[in-house]
Design brief:
The complex is a heterodimer of chains A (256) and B (293). Chain A is α/β, with parallel strands linked by helices. Chain A is built from ten helices and ten strands. Chain A has a single domain, classed as P-loop containing nucleotide triphosphate hydrolases (Rossmann fold, 3-Layer(aba) Sandwich). The longest helix of chain A is centred in the last third of the chain and has 18 residues. In chain B, strand 1 and strand 2 form a beta hairpin. The chains are: A alpha/beta (256), B mainly alpha (293). At the A-B interface, helix 2, strand 6, helix 3 and helix 6 of A face helix 6 and helix 7 of B. Chain A: GO terms for molecular function: ATP binding; ATP hydrolysis activity; branched-chain amino acid transmembrane transporter activity.
């Protein structure tokens, strides 16, 4: 466990031993603690059903929309407890969640998708246009498709759009759920490179849930391994990448 | 030929009245997935409020503005007390809630403002006009123009304003909308308020035609076939569905009616709806889900 005080100025997010229960009966996460420091890229690794998505939803407040609740433990963002705060309020405070499966607004155009993320800060028309251009600079492909209905773009473009839309909210912490899902390796690499660059150039912090251990560990600074709703291992990304047992685990084996 | 055209045009124009009612359903269904059975009651409530205010001697414009305010406040109240506590419940739960709501609103409207039939005069003369040989009703023309205006305003609202884009975003994906900070409760309040104002427009036209009374809330039942034919999620569908129902009713009454003894109008739309359910269950313009895993 960390020995730093919880309220250290660099501590962006601290999750203390949370348990999440769906529908009052089904256990989603049974005891997860983790933290993200300002300017960090932290990976949350694990197989299907390990509790990665649930952990992210607990942090963004979206568990409430899934009829689930945090039954134990607590979460602090920028030193403040987030219990019971609605997801849209958390978004205003700086936590944005890029959902698993991208969830772009299929019937809206690419540009309308991006704009919808920008409304949160109530920018002037001019500021909003500047923000759009900033996102297009990060994801030039989106500019080409700006007038296309988002549902008709490719999987990679949708993932970029989901991230771009999230960036429009001007977040402090981005929760990325399974960005590699269903995408070609070269696109996955491109997306992770952009994430790393956003982190490097703009100091944006990321918490990334991934099954694709290799690509995640290559770009993250620190990582947690989740299994059956528990954190079973954690460490600096390069240390974890060197461990051989994790490669088995990627295929569904146990962490020794 | 003239007679056929007259029947067709009369039907199409009357159909826009159905469209106006159906639009209120589409808005709420799109934004929250709720089939709002209370739309008819809201229509009655709006018309009754307007008539009562006019009876107090208020001028038309002032009564209209006050009624709009009442409908908007009512929408906020409904969102707070009915929708918010029931969020994430199953569709049937929400439907039952709106069913209950419709009785509460009807009871409230009649309790507060009386149950007798009121005349509503919008100052539109219902004199026939002639386009060449074809006779059309002036009232129907005004109704059709109103519907066209309403649709134009809605289209501008949805496509040109931030609220409109947010609203479509919520309709597409509620969770994603939440994740980027869109305030769902506020969107629902706006949608219900707009639906209430649509109810007012429809209520005034229907009320002027058949008098403001309890049976006004039963126009919901006429909106059902319109929605099934046009699709529950499409504004264009509500318009086209209304036109089809209106035209089909009129034509059927005139051309099929004599063979089976008339009285087709009350039920023909439902038969049409059932036929559509067989061949195109999503309706003509119902949005097929675009989903990627």
């Amino acid at each position: 466990m960390n020995t730093q005080p919880q309220t250290a100025p660099s501590r962006l997010l601290a999750v203390h031993d949370i348990e999440v229960i769906y529908d009052g009966a089904i256990l989603g996460v049974a005891g997860v603690s983790l933290h993200v420091d300002q300017g960090g890229i932290v990976a949350l690794l694990g197989a299907n059903g390990a509790g990665k998505s649930t952990t992210l939803k607990a942090i963004s407040g979206l568990v409430q929309a899934d009829r689930a609740q945090i039954s134990r433990g607590h979460i602090q963002f920028l030193g403040e407890d987030t219990a019971g705060i609605a997801p849209n309020v958390l978004a205003r405070r700086g936590i944005v969640h890029v959902l698993e499966g991208r969830h772009v607004f299929a019937h809206l155009t690419v540009e309308e998708n991006l704009r919808s993320g920008g409304f949160l800060r109530r920018p002037s028309r001019q500021t909003l246009e500047q923000e759009l251009e900033r996102i297009y600079a990060w994801f030039p492909r989106l500019k080409v498709k700006r007038r296309t209905a988002a549902g008709l773009t490719s999987g990679g473009e949708q993932q970029m759009l989901a991230i771009g839309r999230a960036l429009m909210t001007q977040p402090t912490l981005v929760l990325l759920d399974e960005p590699s899902m269903g995408l070609a390796p070269i696109i996955v690499e491109e997306i992770f490179d952009i994430v790393a660059e956003l982190n490097h150039k703009e100091g944006m912090s990321f918490l990334v849930a991934e099954q694709n251990i290799n690509v995640a560990l290559r770009h993250a600074h620190y990582a947690y391994i989740l299994e059956n709703g528990h954190v079973v291992s954690e460490g600096a990304a390069q240390d974890l990448a060197a461990r051989e047992d994790l490669q088995h685990f990627y295929l569904g084996g146990q962490v020794s | 030929m003239t007679f056929f055209l007259e029947t067709l045009i009369g039907g199409l124009l009357a159909g826009t009245m159905y469209s106006l009612v159906a639009l209120g359903f589409v808005l709420i269904y799109k934004a929250s997935g709720v089939f709002n059975f209370a739309q008819g009651a809201m229509l009655l409530f709006a018309a009754l409020t307007f008539v009562s205010l006019q009876e107090q001697g208020l001028p038309f414009a002032l009564a209209l503005i006050l009624t709009v305010v009442v409908m908007a406040l009512g929408a906020i109240l409904i969102e707070r007390t009915v929708l918010r506590p029931l969020v994430n419940r199953s569709q049937i739960t929400l439907f039952m809630a709106t069913l209950g709501l419709s009785f509460v609103i009807e009871g409230l409207a009649q309790g507060l403002m009386g149950a007798q039939v009121r005349a509503l005069d919008l100052g539109i003369e219902d004199v026939p006009l002639f386009w060449g040989d074809v006779m059309v009703s002036q009232f129907d023309l005004v109704a059709a123009a109103t519907a066209a205006l309403v649709v134009t305003v809605l289209a501008l609202l949805f496509n040109r304003t931030r609220i409109g884009v947010s609203l479509r975003a919520v309709a597409d994906d509620t969770r994603a909308a939440l994740s980027i900070g869109i305030n769902l409760n506020r969107i629902w309040q706006i949608v219900w308020a707009v639906a209430g104002i649509l109810g007012l427009v429809a209520g005034l036209l229907w009320g002027a035609r058949q008098g403001v009374q309890f049976s006004l809330s039963l126009v919901v039942l006429k909106a059902l076939p319109v929605l099934i034919i046009g699709g529950f999620t499409s504004i264009g569908g509500a318009i086209v569905g209304g036109l089809i129902v209106g035209a089909a009713e009129n034509l059927a009454e005139v051309y099929i009616g004599p063979y089976i003894g008339g009285g087709i109008t009350p039920w023909f739309a439902y038969v049409l709806a059932i036929v559509f359910l067989y061949i195109r269950p999503a309706g003509l313009f119902g949005e097929p889900a675009i989903e990627r895993v």
